[in-house]
Amino acid sequence: MKYKKYNENGNTRWKVDLTVDGKRCRRKGFKTKHEAQDFVVKLKNDKRFRKFFLEKKKDRKLFKDFAEEYLIHHSQHKKSFQSECCLMKHLVEFFGNVELKQFTLDAMKLVNEYKQIRLNSTSVRGTKVSKTTLNRELALLKHMLSIAEENGLIEFNPLLNKRIMYKEQHRENVLSQDVLQTLVDSADSPLKEIIMVALNTGMRKSEILNLEWGQVNLDKKFITTESKTGMIRTIPMNKVLFNLLSQLSLKWGNRRYVFANPKTRKPFTDIKTAWYGLLRRLSIEDFRFHDLRHCFATYALMNGADLVSIKEILGHTDIRTTSRYAKALKEMKQKAVDGFQIGANDGEVIEMPMAQEG
Fold first, then answer.
1. What is the reported pTM?
2. Interval 67-105: pLDDT, tens
3. Which residues pair with 18 in a beta bridge?
4. DSSP secondary structure string for all residues of 171-213
5. CATH 1.10.101.10, domain 177-337, yes or no
6. Which of 3, 52, 303, 345 lies at a C-alpha separation of 20 to 30 Å from 89?
């Protein structure tokens, strides 16, 4: 076994030359001798690692090429296609020229570098990239490597049992009913109608943008939609929603989609520009379109709906997910009574005199 120093573009690098299982193995590019030694230790002790590295592969597929294939074969027909394209864009920017084989060799090193860079990046809204957004990107990367393993492009998925994602704090950001009404009144069409559907059904943005007239039953007053888990659910219409969809049916009923781009007759790919423009005009901060779903659930519970009904309408598979809204409702009620205290200064407890007997 030999460790040798060499110069690469003015930088000192290390290379290793050894024989394992009767096969000569040479590799270079290590920044330190310690990195080269770690590689040798893993090569000798990890059977899967050794088998993969020593196995000569003619097809050295780059991540960017595999990403293109993944979008075509695994994302194109999903409702989340546009979202996955956005997530993939950031992955390709960093990993694009990395060979898939390299993930097996240096997976955690690559992923940790990516996480550090992304958390120090700025989103399209001018804010720091959130850990929630980064988690979606990492989840996509993890699934891609599983597909690569299934197709024999890598020997195993090195991220399969690794904790690479951050713990997320679930948030239920709920605006007052007055502010929500202002939001609707201030929006232009078709954003106005899209917001109204969201507030009166709790449907996800992708479900609304891809809603077809074939899913809308005005006679029996319900909408049929498919959750991201594949579950078919029926959402009843209230009076506001029925009147809205009846009007839209008279106007756009000849189209396939309820909210179609007038130029393409296809669903809107996204509404970010109009949505964030509306929020800026109204000086509303830190409020996502998805928060309209939280508003629907919270106010539905406030008006007497039960958790099981809300679970079915929202399409949750676990009642514990829905119970978050009950917690948010409890906090709202506590905030309401805390903000209106009569009978004592600064919440001071007043001791009442004991009644005299006799």
1. 0.56
2. 998 998 888 777 678 888 889 999 999 999 998 888 877
3. 25
4. ------HHHHHHHHHHPPTTHHHHHHHHHHH---HHHHHT-BG
5. no
6. 52
